[in-house]
Amino acid sequence: MKALGKGSLASIVRTGLVWAWYGLWVLAGLWVLAAIGYGAILVLIANGMMDPALLEGGDGNLAVGSGSGNFHVTYDQPGGGTWPIAVPGLLIAAVAIIGSLIIVWRLRKLFDSFSSGEPFQRENAQHLRVIWITMLAIEIARYLLMALTGVLVATFGEPNLETTFSFAIDISTWGSILILIVLAEVFREGARLKEEQELTI
Description:
The protein is built from 5 helices and 2 strands; from the N terminus they run H-H-E-E-H-H-H. It has 201 residues and is mainly alpha-helical. It has one domain (9-200). The two termini are 31 Å apart.
């Protein structure tokens, strides 16, 4: 099977990217529901309608409503759901989803040109540049949000939770960023040479 053009491997990858694009939007919708749900739980706890142990961990009784129509659920959960953990976690997920949407969108545009058999276009260098900048932003945001989580837990505490925060550097991610920086320049130079050749002809 040929690598470029219609019916090529690039066309198959482009189809996969389309499915990934829609899948990411589903994840984005689930994130919105999770954020709204978590906010609603915090409001109910603040109003005394839910037991705070639901987020703090341990045994508890979830009660919604008042009077004889109460809804009760008994639970035993390990904790880790208080806001110093959950809010940064939601922010990390949001950064990952938004960044992934940008990357997949740019990859779709990139593979559109690959599928048409015209890889060396000036726009492709720009797509690659946006991809590596987005990856860099995601990685830096991850470090900052992990640091924020550590500060919040140290400041406000997290009952019934033993957490070790790791700031390990992901070599594969940073290697991919460096490779994309080089590829962006390769495509930019390829597009320049192609334009010069067309002008010469």
